[in-house]
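Q: My labmate handed me this sequence with no annotations at all. I'd like to see what the chain might look like in three dimensions before we decide whether it's worth expressing. Could you predict it?
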Amino acid sequence: MGQDSASTVSSGIGVLDKSVVVLRAIAEAPCNLTELCDRTGLPRATAHRLAVGLETHRLLARNAAGRWYPGPALSELAASAHDPVREAALMVLPRLREITGESVQVYRREGAERICIAAMEPPTGLRDTVPVGTRFPMSAGSAAKVLLAWAEPTTQRALLHDSVFSERALHEIRRRGWAQSAGERAAGVASVSAPVRDGTGEVVAAISVSGPIDRMGRRPGARWAADLLAAADAIHKRLGPTRG
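A: Here is what I predict for the chain of 244 residues:
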């Protein structure tokens, strides 16, 4: 992972962004200072100062070989995190998986990437396995299309430059209410996705069904769009109205 891929999202707070770059680099695999500098592109003194600081706060730890690895404070923070979209999705995904017999996921956009926040796989057979926490670029795939179709115009313009789809395609997705793809994100994989809305009606995620093209076909929306839209609506209802 180079610095460019690690620092896709910028908060405008330099030390914070660099600290996150360090955390992400070490999350890939334990590393020493030289390896950390190689992965992040940060100067040696900066990388060392940030890693030691994160270690002080138990966000990083060091093993006997002197390599940093994710610290216990990360799991402690994660255990207390409340994600209503993920929690609602986990109540709905089992039924969608049962209906389709395929892999099902929910994605959220983070900058120029989408991250899988919930996923379930069919118990048997060939599947499209996407572990929770997996990140994909916003340049391809039905979930990327959905998340970008309802994004702000400035975000659309910034991300469409590197995408395999066009602004016209996003307009059609908004009109139709769902997106599909075949072989865009990965060869041999097809998917169909729909927007998930919160209590205010804002699109906050995308719910997807994905699997082998040989089984789902090149137009999976014809088969699964209605069930997918019903699942998206079920999540929306579980999120409920937002209280002021």
